[in-house]
Design brief:
This protein has 371 residues and is of the alpha/beta class. Helix content is 39%, strand content 15%. It folds into two domains: 99 residues, 2-Layer Sandwich (Enolase-like, domain 1), CATH 3.30.390; 234 residues, TIM Barrel (Alpha-Beta Barrel). The structure holds magnesium ion.
């Protein structure tokens, strides 16, 4: 079997799908994307055709190594996201070739179903709890919400009190069996993050994600050491080399590699194995589409140190059979490969130009602040 063709599709709301074809008639799907840089990643994917066309798609480890190391300059979000989407599609092809779900090729199932959480928000606690009630009815039992922003470098009493009161009211309003995590989105300074986490620690949140940016690992390690709430990070960290120092410095209890950024299924499996040696858990980051979710499930289903899978879409429209939530979990796929069937007519009907970009925020004085 040989790889014959790579096709990319920018689809709404902001995703990039990749279809890899082979001369055996088997096709595989992946999501190679960096949010806000979809067109750049698309170019990187097509530049990698030189390494892929005419090659055996089953030799995933070798192709991964050639894509990663073969261009002399390695890593970074654009190149590793291109590799990630290609890697997902290659695993999809491999599973279909052997007639088994991908997790069967990765050591077999470590669980019968995969826990997942939904995003939830609201201007007021009442609005949040109203939306959460609908999601609980749909089957979810874990949520994540964001830290309001913009946040000043040293936030004042009014801001801190409003966060504590808002999140406290939400937590008290949720049933006790429902988990709540919070994403700080790397917005606060280290000083602000320490202050806010100390206030939120009594609420027993499931995790606090990206309390600060991840570029300075000792700074994150200091926050992690002081916090009682588990600290999570990883969506902006790439490959096992990127996660090495996070683990060595005990900078996070929960790693959130993104299967569309960190290096795909192949690489996140390795990151998970490294994490296991440090008693760290894996909660794959995924604000993207249904192929990303399917790839996350393949990893979750085959590692022992999995915590919970993020999702923002069960694939309605794009999948002929969207994922279903039951008791907070998604059942393991039973069909070969990633276990999903893409509706290509729906893809064609939902193409867009790939121009989605990140919001840009300012402080009160007009200076830049994190989104
Ligand atoms: Mg996040």
């Amino acid at each position: 079997m040989k790889i014959t063709r790579l096709e990319t599709f920018h689809v709404k709301p902001r995703w990039l799908f990749l279809k890899i074809s082979t001369d055996a008639g088997i096709t595989g799907w992946g999501e190679p994307i960096v949010e806000g840089r979809a067109r750049t990643v698309e170019t990187a994917v097509h530049e990698m055709e030189a390494v892929l066309i005419g090659q055996n798609p089953l030799a995933i480890e070798d192709l991964w190594t050639r894509m990663y190391r073969g261009t002399f300059y390695r890593g970074g979000p654009v190149l590793t996201s291109a590799i990630s989407g290609i890697d997902q599609a290659l695993w999809d092809i491999k599973g279909k070739h052997f007639g088994v779900p991908v997790h069967e090729l990765l050591g077999g199932p470590t669980r019968q179903r995969v826990r997942t959480y939904a995003h939830c928000g609201g201007e007021t606690p009442e609005e949040f709890l109203e939306r959460a009630a609908k999601l609980i009815e749909q089957g979810f039992d874990a949520f994540k919400t964001g830290l309001p922003g913009p946040i000043e470098p040293v936030p004042n009493h009014a801001y801190i009190d409003s966060v504590v009161e808002h999140v406290g009211a939400i937590r008290r309003g949720l049933p006790k069996h429902v988990d709540l995590g919070m994403d700080f989105h790397g917005k606060p300074t280290p000083a602000a993050a320490e202050t806010i986490i100390a206030e939120l620690d009594p609420l027993r949140l499931m995790f606090i994600e990206e309390p600060i940016q991840c570029e300075n690992v000792p700074a994150l390690a200091r926050i992690s050491m002081k916090a009682k709430t588990p600290i999570a990070t990883g969506e902006r960290i790439f490959t096992r080399w990127g996660f090495r120092e996070i683990l060595e410095q005990r900078a996070a209890a929960i790693l959130q590699p993104d299967i569309c950024h960190a290096g795909g299924i192949t690489e996140v499996r390795k990151i998970a194995a490294m994490a296991e040696a440090y008693y760290a858990l894996i909660a794959p980051h995924n604000p993207l589409g249904p192929i990303s979710l399917a790839a996350g499930l393949a990893v979750a289903a085959s590692i022992p140190n999995f915590l919970i899978q993020e999702q923002v879409s069960l694939g309605e429209g794009y999948l002929k059979e969207p994922f279903v939530i039951r008791e907070g979990h998604i059942d393991l796929p039973t069909r070969p490969g990633l276990g999903i069937e893409i509706d290509e007519d729906y893809v064609q009907a939902n193409l867009y130009d790939g121009a989605w970009d990140s919001p840009r925020w300012n402080n009160r004085d007009g200076s830049f602040t994190e989104w």
